[in-house]
Amino acid sequence: MQLFRFANPDFLYLLLLLPLMIFIFIISDIRKRRTIRKLGDLKLVNDLIPELSPARPVVKFVTLMGAVVLCIIVLARPQFGSKIEDIKKQGVEVIIALDVSNSMLAEDIQPNRLTRAKQAISRLVDNLDNDKIGLIVFAGDAYTQIPVTTDYVSAKMFLSSINPAMVPKQGTAIGAAISLGMRSFSPGEDKSKALILITDGENHEDDPVSAAEEASKVGIIIHTIGIGSEQGVPVPVISGGRKDFLKDIDGNTVITKLDEEILKKVALSTNGNYVRANNSNIGLDEIYNEIRKMKKQELESTIYTEYNDQFQIFAALAIILLILEFIIMDRKNRKLANIRLFNFKV
Hints:
six-stranded mixed sheet; disordered C terminus; three-stranded antiparallel sheet; 15 strands; alpha/beta
């Protein structure tokens, strides 16, 4: 499907300056005509100044306006069509499994656990260069949000849309996230693979330690980040436009606590690291520094860019119009005025 867009559409607001330019030109032209009339009869003035051309300033102005419009379009970066690129880089494959259960809305990590984790992942993606990254979200079950890729722009785009409402089943199935992560890496036993779990550790669905042991058998290293407090806090929810707290079926306020022990066991099973997050540091950078020490491998990746820059023709036309505006003089050329290219005597 062929599509068109502007990569920097904010520059198109500069087009609002065009009516102002037209207004200034009209006012200037009116004043110039009034000045000429003060000199005497308009026909007499034209005879005294034969090189005076009322049309040339208009042509120059229209040409300049056209060049300005084209320059604004170039700044807005028109894009059209599609482009697919195959690239090869040296790096490792990393999959981040992010807990999106309701307990991740707890505010013991400001502004809340989930938002803080997403901010840390976004900063990590900004610093990536050659490594492949994938993203899994999980609650009562696990789902692939982003397959392993080097398309970091798309990764950040999908990351911004993550919230607890995107998963149909609530809970915390860490084992399911590990199992899905195992299936999500590129095939090949010699590849360096790392899985990062970001969760409060309150597992309610399965046995994450057994899943981690299976992952270790195929060479996957699992690092875990515990996000939350051991004391426990309620889970805020919006009900009827008001802030309330999540209740269980008996009407009691749900308290969510960080379960560090399970996360330490998962990391230990695969020779990975466990880091406890806090308000000042989630710990993702610390873990990624350890991942960088892993053996690099050649990663083949196909990056799909839906849009391709097409500003070149607009830039060329703008240059042509600017040259014409420079060449066209405000007055007629006396030496060329008597040339009659189409005046033939028969």
